[in-house]
Write a structure and sequence with these properties.
This protein has 214 residues and is mostly helical. It folds into two domains: 53 residues, Arc Repressor Mutant, subunit A (Orthogonal Bundle); 140 residues, Tetracycline Repressor, domain 2 (Orthogonal Bundle), CATH 1.10.357.10. It contains ten helices and no strands. Helix 1 crosses helix 2, helix 4 runs antiparallel to helix 5 and helix 4 packs parallel to helix 7. The C terminus is likely disordered.
């Protein structure tokens, strides 16, 4: 494929994702149709299926693009350590929770996944990929701190993901119950609480001898 054709294909791909984001936001996952996405993108239904073989794959690709952007930003912040990344993590959670459609679309997609095995499999695969990235980020921070944790990196990643999902839902229903910095503060407390205490050095000096004699 020539460079110009590849560039045109890439532009069409992104245009379809932008159109899908608009239609899914307006209609919800269940009511959104490939035909309406094609019309919004100014292209044919065949073009949609040439890039994405199903509505499920199109929706997951949209989620993958958003996740890639968020994780790239988080990775850049993590270069200076977890605490430096906390404000960015808080902003990302608030952006979803306070959005007019992101939190609702995520909840609808989760419910649809329970009813549709095909979509459930696609969404589960996406979450596994996201979980692997989060687990790697936990490992990087643990290594940077030079410590060990009382839970595995994967378990910490699972808890962090579940915490984010829950806080998004709580903030949508009751904004005052989730302060802007709650996510970051909780993650900081979680990591601090999971750090294994270093072994106490052997006692020495007169006081140690006295305690042994006693």
């Amino acid at each position: 494929m020539s460079g110009s054709r590849a560039a045109a294909k890439a532009r069409t791909h992104e245009n379809l994702l932008d159109a899908a984001a608009t239609v899914f936001a307006e209609r919800g996952y269940g009511a959104a149709s490939v035909e309406e996405i094609a019309r919004t993108a100014g292209t044919s239904v065949g073009s949609v299926y040439a890039h994405f073989t199903s509505k499920e794959k199109l929706f997951v690709a949209l989620m993958e693009r958003r996740s890639a952007h968020e994780f790239a930003a988080a990775q850049a912040e993590l270069v200076d350590g977890f605490e430096a990344a906390v404000p960015a993590l808080n902003r990302q959670l608030l952006a979803e929770a306070d959005s007019d459609h992101l939190a609702e679309l995520g909840a609808e997609a989760w419910l649809y996944a329970l009813r549709s095995p095909a979509f459930g499999a696609e969404l589960a695969a996406h979450h596994r990929r996201v979980h692997e990235i989060i687990t790697d980020m936990v490992a990087q921070e643990r290594t940077r701190r030079g410590t060990t944790l009382s839970m595995s990196d994967a378990e910490v990643g699972t808890v962090a993901s579940a915490l984010a999902r829950g806080l998004v839902q709580y903030r949508r229903l009751s904004p005052e119950s989730v302060p802007d910095d709650l996510f970051g503060r909780t993650l900081s407390a979680l990591l601090a609480g999971l750090e294994a205490s270093p072994a106490s050095p052997p006692a020495s000096g007169p006081d140690a001898a006295a305690s042994v004699d006693a």
